[in-house]
Amino acid sequence: MKPSSREPIHGQWSSRWAFVLAATGSAVGLGNIWKFPYITGENGGGAFVLVYLVCISLIGIPIMMAEILLGRRGRRSPINTMRHLAQEEGRHGAWRYLGWLGILAGVLILSYYSVIAGWALAYLVRTGSGVFTGLTADGVNNIFYSLVADPERLLAWHTLFLTMTMVVVARGVRSGLEQAVRYLMPLLLVLLLVLVGYAMNTGAFQQALGFLFYPDFSKLSPNSVLIAMGHAFFTLSLGMGAIMVYGSYLPRHVSITHATLIIATADTLVALLAGMAIFPIVFANGLAPGAGPGLIFQTLPIAFGRMPGGEFFGAVFFVLLIFAAWTSAISLIEPLVAYMVENLRMTRVRATALAGGVAWFLGLGTIFSFNIWSGDRYKLWGLTFFDLLDYLTVNIMLPLGGLLIVIFTVWVMRRESVMSELGVKDGPLFRIWYLVSRYVTPVAVLLIFLHAIGVLQPLLNP
Ligand code: PFF
């Protein structure tokens, strides 16, 4: 069957740009603004950034092309797409479980993503109202700990963020997703540039650039290499069908290769710009870049409390973080909603309410991880419910999903089907992509995977 005759039942993006914006919205999120700066800080800066860029090129870009390609050819939710494509290629129907794996990962990630995004909402109120002004590091820490120690407050912010997400998703592809990214993404870029503009005048911009771009390989451990690879996955939203489902709404004529290059470049630029906004502020205030996950919630507010106009710039920063998280969260739930509409014949509104309800309920586990379940009694292998969920999804489910997606595309699907969907001839560029996707990408992903489940640990730390 020629795939072009299949139409997506949920509607299509109105243009190539709508798709590029939506996929960039999915990619740019807490991963870029919260996680990338702190893992760069923890892993010594420039050399880590370089490895991360190599990972984006060798793992991220090939897998993203594969995911979009599968989505557009299947034209359905990831489960039905995988089932159709496996049938079309005369392969086993069990490939649909790849779709299930992704949908499950999406709901699990959303359940904690929404809790962390809720912190950003809480911080917007606090920074905007000047709570941090003149506070010492201890004062700022107290604010953080009193927030996370209060399950009721966390629940309220989590509920608010998830409701914002559900409202967009319930409205559908064109009037919900597309409208949201059309306004939020340009605004996000403007806010980021305002912050970088401010950071350039802090007097520590050069120092931050040196930190981000001067590669000192002595600071790089084998572990950092694997962290960089794992992050390439998370930041590009790969391995769970989010990009696949967005690809299923993509019009036929759009070039997958060009779109992928734009999305990956935009995501990388936002991460680097976030670094260029955050580190000068951190250095100018004599704070440490390697503070870990608290960099944004515990270190940065100290700086906002000290600098002139800190309330304004702090508020700008948290609005930026909220927008970024919002456009990512909608893509985490879309695969499940699409599936429920297709298979359970539900309306979109009802499907969104149900899927959101499940994520909301699971979010309680993450909320309690910071307070009533934070004791050792509630830990498994020394990890809280939140740590376990984060570990399971980012280190196991996403790499596994990505590995299977790329294997299906370049080992299971016929080469002609792949070429016809990409709309390319058998030229040198296609051959390079095919070769990298067949050999380099799966081996690299397999390495992250083995690392995550601990098989490589004894080799790396003898
Ligand atoms: N890419 C998002 C971020 O960097 O925050 C996180 C994410 C969104 C991961 C959607 C996976 C996904 F499907």
Topology, please?
Elements: H1 16-27, H2 30-42, H3 46-74, H4 78-88, H5 96-128, H6 137-148, H7 151-170, H8 173-200, H9 205-213, H10 222-235, H11 242-247, H12 256-284, H13 300-306, H14 310-343, H15 348-369, H16 385-412, H17 415-422, H18 428-452, H19 457-460
Helix pairs in contact: 1-8, 1-12, 1-14, 2-10, 2-12, 3-4, 3-9, 3-10, 3-12, 3-16, 3-18, 4-5, 5-7, 5-14, 5-15, 5-16, 7-8, 7-14, 7-15, 8-12, 8-14, 9-12, 10-16, 10-18, 13-14, 14-15, 15-16, 16-18
The structure holds 4-fluoro-L-phenylalanine.
4-fluoro-L-phenylalanine binds next to helix 1, helix 2, helix 5, helix 10 and helix 14.
Corresponding CATH architecture: Orthogonal Bundle
Give the low-confidence spans.
none
Structural class: mainly alpha
In CATH, the topology is named: Hydantoin permease
Number of domains: 1
A few lines on this structure:
The chain is mainly alpha-helical and 462 residues long. It has helices at residues 16-27, 30-42, 46-74, 78-88, 96-128, 137-148, 151-170, 173-200, 205-213, 222-235, 242-247, 256-284, 300-306, 310-343, 348-369, 385-412, 415-422, 428-452, 457-460. It has a single domain (3-460), classed as Orthogonal Bundle (Hydantoin permease).
